[in-house]
Amino acid sequence: MNIVLLEPDQCASADVWQISQPRQLQHLGQHLQLNVGDTLKVGIREGQRYLTEVVAISEECIRVRPVQTEAVPAKLPVHLILALPRPKVLRRIMMDAVTLGVERISLIHSYRVDKSYWQTPFLQQLNDYVTLGLEQAGDTIAPEIQLYKRFKPFVEDVLPTLISAEQPAYVAHPYAEQPMPYAIQHSCSLIVGPEGGFIPYEVDLLIKNGCQAMSLGNRILRTETAVSNILGRLFV
Amino acid sequence: MNIVLLEPDQCASADVWQISQPRQLQHLGQHLQLNVGDTLKVGIREGQRYLTEVVAISEECIRVRPVQTEAVPAKLPVHLILALPRPKVLRRIMMDAVTLGVERISLIHSYRVDKSYWQTPFLQQLNDYVTLGLEQAGDTIAPEIQLYKRFKPFVEDVLPTLISAEQPAYVAHPYAEQPMPYAIQHSCSLIVGPEGGFIPYEVDLLIKNGCQAMSLGNRILRTETAVSNILGRLFV
C-alpha cells in the first residue's frame, strides 16, 4: 500500500479527511509508525492524489489534512483481455494488472475455463482487488472492467470493434511464429488465455477476427507471470 | 507442469522410465487422461528433454519409453539478486524466476528483510520450487542458487566480482533517474529489493560498489510482479 485510497464521499467538502477503514488502519499500524505531523500519501478514488499531514490519531481513525497535490501515474494504453483465471489466481492477477496500469480489463470465457469459476464469490470482490492494485501503484483511477461469459459472441461481435490499424490485438500463443513485439508506441489489446492455453479452434477464431498470434519464446509461463512479463516488454 | 521432471537415477540404464512421485501422478491424473500409447514430455534433471510414449499405467506408476529428444529452452543470461522475500512469496517468486529462465539466483539479506525469514522451513524447499519452475517452463537445468545472510559483505566482497563493462548490475530503484534498459544484448545482474525497498544506505552502498540504479517509472510494483516485468523488458 503506497497510498491510502479514500472514496470521494469521505472527502467531500471537508478540510480534514478520516481514514477509518479497518484494513487500511491495520496496514498503517503494522507498517508505519505514524505520529501527528507526519506526512502520508492519500488518493481520492477517481480523483487526485495528495500529500497529506496527519492531524489526529485514534484507535478508530486517522485524520489527515491535504497539503499538496501529487501526480497520478499515467496508464498503459492497453486493454487486457484475459480468460477468467481460477479464483485463487484471480485476485493476484487483477491486482497486478491494475498496479501495472492497465487501462481496461475484460474477463472472458474459454474452453479451458471451468464454468464454476463464473460462480465464485471472488468475482464479487473485483472492486476490492482494484483498490489493492491502485494502492500498491499509487494510482487513483480504476480501469474499466467487463465480463463476457460467452467466448464466441465476444470474439465475433465485440473484439472486431476494438481492433484497428493503430490498435492491434495480440494473442499470446506459444506456437506462433512471430515474436510478441516490444517497445510499442501505440495502444493495443493483449489477449492471454487460460492455464493450458486456448484450444486451436479458439486461436483460429481469434485470428479470423483480426487478432495477431504472437509467441513468447519456448518457455511456457503461468498466466499471472505472462501478464506482467508481456506488459514489461510491450511498454518500456 | 509442461514436462515431467525425473531424477537422473530414475532413468539410469533403462529403456523404460517410471513416473512414481505422488505429486506428479496426481497432476497427470487431474489434467491429462493418459492412455497407453499416448505421448508425454519428460525431462531428466540436468539432462535432456524427451518426447516419450506411455507403455504402462498403474495406480502407483506410469511407465514411459523415450521416443526422441527435444530442445531444452535457452536460459536468460541474468543473475537475479533478490532480497529474501517473505516466506509466502518465496515459492512463487522462485518458481517464476526459474520458469522465466534465470541462470543464477542469489538471495540476500537487507534491512527490510525480517530476520525470521532466514529461519523459515520454506528455505529448505528451494529445490522443490526449482522443480516446479522447470516443469512449468519445460526446462531441465536448475539455476545455481546461493544465500547471503549478510548484506554488506555480499555487496562489498562478492558483488564487485560479478560486475564488468560487459556485465553490468542494475538495481531496480523507484527514485532513480535513468530508466531500466530494454532489449539488452549482453548478460547482467539484476538486483531487486525487499517489499518497502532498499534503504538509502543500501542503495548508496550498491552504487558505490558498481551497480547502476534504474527506475521502473512511477508505479511501485510488488517484488514478484517486478521480477517478471523487468525480465520481460530486459530480454525481448
Describe this structure in words.
In chain A, helix 2 runs parallel beside helix 3 (126-137) and helix 2 (87-100) runs parallel beside helix 6 (223-234). In chain A, the strands form two sheets. A six-stranded parallel sheet of chain A has the order 8-7-6-10-9-11, with helices on both faces. A five-stranded mixed sheet of chain A has the order 1-3-4-5-2. Chain A has helices spanning 22-31, 87-100, 126-137, 151-162, 200-208, 223-234; strands spanning 4-6, 17-19, 39-44, 49-57, 62-70, 76-83, 102-108, 144-148, 169-172, 188-192, 212-214. Chain A has six helices and eleven strands. The first copy, chain A, folds into two domains: 4-70, Hypothetical PUA domain-like, domain 1 (Ribosomal Protein L25, Chain P, Beta Barrel), CATH 2.40.240; 76-234, Alpha/beta knot (3-Layer(aba) Sandwich). The longest helix of chain A is centred in the middle third of the chain and has 14 residues, at 87-100. The first copy, chain A, is α/β, with parallel strands linked by helices. The A-B interface holds A 2, 31, 71, 73, 95-96, 99-101, 136-139, 179, 182-183, 196, 217-222, 225, 228-233, 236 and B 2, 31, 71, 73, 95-96, 99-101, 136-139, 179, 182-183, 196, 217-222, 225, 228-233, 236.
